[in-house]
């Protein structure tokens, strides 16, 4: 029974921790766009910034 | 048909005429594209190393317009700091951030493509596009790049980015939504955990638990309830303080008192070291209330979102003719236009301001305002309205109203106000609960005084029990929960309720009035009959399509089709028709008189077998070739919806500005006994007033602002959602996918909603009438009090949930209007 002295405060702490985690995830925008990440994971090039490597292919446009 | 290349356009998927030879090289193979615009866009994409787009996309892109030189000039204007004020934020030095709305996005690959493309612009630090809203947030370094470079990069790949200047407003709404969600979350988390600490006490009874464990559990409960009382319940305090200052007792006052009193008393008990605590009741109570409100506000926001983009409909720039001789034309931002400026509007452009035509003759598509798809011809001294589209030839307009004073802006304001309205029945519930609060507080005080004198030791617990058991939880949840469930259900089925009173008023409706064009009918002319005098029908249709491909007229869309015939030297004669050359022969298409003027032969009469409708004639210089009959077709579900409404006991009327024959014909087809034709807006108003004078409650279904006075006068108005954004602003509700068969269901649901609200209010009052005396007499143990309160709330919410959609969308599609609600 004495373990309750540890477990109950621990459970309270845990609840606060979960609350803080939720707050953080909400603040960091994880609930802003619920669709995007599901699509992004399927795309080979999923960082919006790593594009310079492909830039060398660039050729002048030649519209007729 | 053999003239059409087998492969569709690589970029936009439209057929490629054979005599064109545009290609792009993708994965080393030349692919056909349909026009120079698509070619330029596709090669931009491939050259940028973004060819993966073509593998990932799920739908072909929109057909790309070639980027005119003046557009680039125009984009430069966006670099003007004065213009940027509305939507760009800076960090003091060179960092800038803007919100852009990107048009033309149809799938995930488009987003990927746009993100890559924007990120390639040197100086762009960060870009992210929201999949749901298509809004991009871009941060860049202003010393390295300009906003116009970013906009141009987007235009290069065939999309259109425009500043989203409602972003700030949205930021505020977003913040509110987030904090509401978090408050709810805190309360929910706390509720669950506190309940776990409380269950042992309830199961064993307070006497059977050793005091040290009891204290431990109670202190844990206190710790977890503290955030709920201090943070989650905050909006209730704010709102009741506001009410109290205005001398009213709102629904939030008893909530605040209940929460604070129960918490304070429990804390006191805890410190004193004996007696019961109510922490579980506090957090459960707050959670249930917040949950109801969160759902309600979400439903409201969803109703508003469909109409939110109205303000973005105006173009950002206009061509202004500069004084003194008006010979020069300069590009200016629309926000810089002033009354009495002279503005040139080219064909195909949206008119940026309210004004009067000074020069030119053209037709204008006012579908945006009136819902009528047929263009209205405009000449000198005619008024034009911001947001409508100039179709045929250039107009020079003198500005009368700009910005916030245009009709469009007025409608947007109207809408904003409407969305903030509170349903009347909720106001009634507010009043009842106000009274209830006063009574409750009095009773609690008297109870406390009585027991103080009689048995001081139990005075406080009993007074708290009175407050807890009778907390007007059920009462304050009763209405919003039912309205939210019903609104959500309707939204799923395709009817967005945008005014508070709509559902309530729907229950009183006796008569239903339909507009014709665009409401009972599709609102778009379709080819229903072809008579050919000369040559193959296939060839005639091809010629017509080739010529009409050069026109933006709605009638032209009805004739357009895939064709291998290619017309050159096409000239658009506003108000008449088109002339053009095909394979060396000159052709004329259009109105009878216009074509007759270009054809030597005597005009044949209207073909005997042609049905009523608009006739379009086709002729070459010597022969009449064909007559096409176009007419508006009835919506497929209209007949079923009208019948279902009549079966429910409503009287159905047809009210239209169209001519008698067409209206009578439609009324007969649909089985509508009462119809009025050739009605002007004023005439429509008269009919509506007559109906109302005879004591009828009228619901009007229309699709435009030409119906606006009638829609406004009707007890309930429903706007069709088919493409015409601005028309929707005037309706109490918007039928957003224009499925008329939702209406009988909605009316039935409205009646059911009223029933449920009444049941809920009756239950809440009845429960309180029984529970309160018991609590006052000290017969209710505290755990029974909180259980009773919670059970009562759950019952009310559960009852309201009967109004929510029974299944998800899949099932709904199969459900017909009749069996929607038994």
TrEMBL record, chain B:
It holds the Pfam family HMA. Keywords: ATP-binding, Cell membrane, Ion transport, Magnesium, Membrane, Metal-binding, Nucleotide-binding, Phosphoprotein, Translocase, Transmembrane, Transmembrane helix, Transport. SUPFAM superfamilies: Calcium ATPase, transduction domain A, Calcium ATPase, transmembrane domain M, HAD-like, HMA, heavy metal-associated domain, Metal cation-transporting ATPase, ATP-binding domain N. The chain crosses the membrane at residues 184-204, 216-237, 249-271, 277-295, 432-453, 459-483, 761-781, 787-805. InterPro entries: ATPase-cat-bd, ATPase_P-typ_cyto_dom_N, ATPase_P-typ_P_site, ATPase_P-typ_TM_dom_sf, ATPase_P-typ_transduc_dom_A_sf, ATPase_P-type_domA, HAD-like_sf, HAD_sf. It is found in: Cell membrane. This is Copper-translocating P-type ATPase. Belongs to the cation transport ATPase (P-type) (TC 3.A.3) family. Type IB subfamily. It is a multi-pass membrane protein. Its main location: membrane. Residues 96-162 form the HMA domain. The keyword Metal-binding applies.
């Amino acid at each position: 029974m004495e373990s309750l002295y540890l477990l109950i405060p621990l459970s309270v702490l845990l609840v606060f921790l979960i609350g803080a985690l939720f707050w953080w995830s909400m603040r960091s925008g994880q609930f802003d766009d619920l669709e995007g990440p599901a699509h992004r994971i399927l795309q080979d090039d999923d960082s919006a910034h790593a594009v310079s490597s492909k830039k060398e292919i660039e050729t002048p446009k030649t519209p007729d | 048909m053999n003239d059409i290349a087998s492969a569709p356009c690589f970029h936009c998927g439209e057929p490629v005429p054979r005599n064109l030879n545009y290609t792009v090289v993708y994965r080393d193979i030349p692919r056909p594209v349909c026009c120079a615009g698509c070619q330029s866009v596709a090669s931009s994409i491939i050259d940028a190393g973004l060819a993966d787009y073509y593998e990932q996309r799920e739908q072909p892109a929109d057909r790309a317009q070639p980027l005119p030189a003046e557009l680039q000039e125009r984009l430069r204007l966006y670099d003007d700091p004065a213009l940027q004020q509305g939507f760009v934020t800076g960090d003091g030095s060179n960092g800038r951030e803007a919100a852009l709305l990107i048009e033309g996005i149809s799938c995930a690959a488009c987003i990927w493509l746009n993100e890559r493309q924007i990120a390639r612009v040197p100086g762009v630090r960060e870009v992210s596009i929201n999949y749901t809203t298509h809004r991009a947030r871009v941060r860049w370094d202003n010393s390295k790049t300009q906003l116009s470079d970013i906009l141009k990069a987007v235009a290069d790949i065939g999309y259109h980015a425009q500043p989203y200047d409602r972003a700030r407003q949205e930021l505020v709404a977003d913040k509110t939504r987030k904090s509401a969600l978090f408050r709810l979350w805190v309360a929910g988390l706390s509720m669950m955990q506190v309940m776990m600490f409380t269950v042992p006490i309830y199961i064993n009874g307070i006497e059977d638990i050793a005091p040290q464990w009891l204290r431990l559990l109670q202190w844990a409960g206190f710790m977890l309830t503290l955030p709920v009382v201090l943070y989650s319940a905050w909006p209730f305090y704010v709102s009741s303080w506001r009410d109290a200052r205005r001398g009213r007792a709102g629904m939030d006052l008893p909530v605040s008192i209940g929460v604070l009193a129960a918490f304070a008393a429990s804390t006191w008990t805890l410190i004193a070291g004996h007696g019961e605590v109510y922490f579980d009741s506090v957090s459960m109570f707050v959670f249930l209330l917040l949950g109801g409100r969160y759902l309600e506000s979400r439903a409201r926001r969803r109703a508003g979102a469909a109409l939110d983009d109205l303000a973005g409909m105006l173009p950002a720039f206009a061509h202004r003719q500069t004084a003194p001789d008006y010979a020069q034309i300069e590009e200016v931002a629309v926000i810089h236009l002033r009354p009495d400026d002279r503005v040139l509007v080219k064909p195909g452009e949206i008119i940026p301001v309210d004004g009067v035509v000074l020069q030119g003759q053209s037709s204008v598509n006012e579908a945006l305002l009136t819902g009528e798809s047929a263009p209205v011809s405009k000449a000198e001294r005619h008024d034009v309205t911001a947001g409508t589209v100039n179709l045929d030839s250039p107009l020079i307009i003198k500005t009368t109203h700009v910005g916030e004073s245009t009709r469009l802006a007025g409608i947007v304001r109207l809408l904003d106000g409407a969305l903030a309205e509170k349903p009347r029945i909720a106001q009634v519930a507010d009043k009842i609960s106000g009274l209830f609060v006063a009574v409750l507080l009095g009773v609690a005080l008297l109870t406390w005084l009585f027991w103080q004198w009689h048995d001081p030791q139990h005075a406080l617990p009993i007074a708290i029990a009175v407050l807890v058991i009778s907390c007007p939880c059920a009462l304050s949840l009763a209405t919003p929960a039912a309205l939210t469930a019903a609104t959500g259900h309707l939204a799923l089925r395709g009817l967005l309720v945008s005014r508070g009173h709509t559902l309530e008023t729907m229950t009183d409706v006796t008569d239903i009035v339909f507009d014709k064009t665009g409401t009972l009918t599709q609102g778009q002319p379709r080819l229903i009959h072809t008579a050919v005098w000369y040559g193959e029908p296939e060839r005639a249709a091809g010629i017509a399509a080739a010529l009409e491909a050069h026109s933006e007229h709605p009638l032209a869309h009805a004739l357009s089709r895939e064709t291998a015939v290619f017309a050159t030297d096409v000239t658009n004669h506003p108000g008449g028709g088109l002339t053009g050359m095909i394979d060396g022969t000159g052709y004329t298409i259009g109105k009878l008189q216009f074509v007759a003027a270009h054809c030597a032969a005597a005009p044949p009469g209207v073909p005997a077998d042609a049905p009523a409708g608009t006739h379009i004639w086709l002729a070459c210089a010597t022969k009449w070739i064909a007559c096409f009959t176009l007419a508006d077709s009835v919506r497929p579900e209209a007949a079923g919806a009208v019948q279902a409404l009549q079966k429910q006991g409503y009287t159905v009327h047809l009210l239209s500005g169209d001519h008698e024959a067409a209206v009578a014909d439609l009324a007969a087809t649909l089985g509508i006994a009462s119809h009025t034709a050739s009605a002007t807006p004023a005439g429509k108003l008269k009919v509506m007033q007559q109906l109302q004078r005879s004591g009828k409650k009228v619901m009007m279904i229309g699709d435009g602002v030409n119906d606006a006075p009638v829609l406004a006068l009707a007890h309930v108005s429903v706007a069709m959602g088919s493409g015409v954004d601005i028309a929707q602003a005037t309706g109490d509700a918007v039928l957003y996918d224009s499925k008329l068969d939702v209406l009988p269901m909605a009316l039935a649901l409205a009646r059911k909603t009223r029933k449920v609200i009444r049941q809920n209010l009756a239950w809440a009052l009845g429960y309180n009438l029984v529970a309160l005396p018991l609590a006052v007499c000290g017969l209710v143990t505290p755990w029974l009090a909180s259980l009773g309160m919670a059970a009562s709330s759950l019952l009310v919410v559960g009852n309201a949930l009967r109004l929510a959609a029974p299944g998800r969308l899949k099932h709904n599609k199969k459900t017909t209007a009749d069996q929607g609600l038994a």
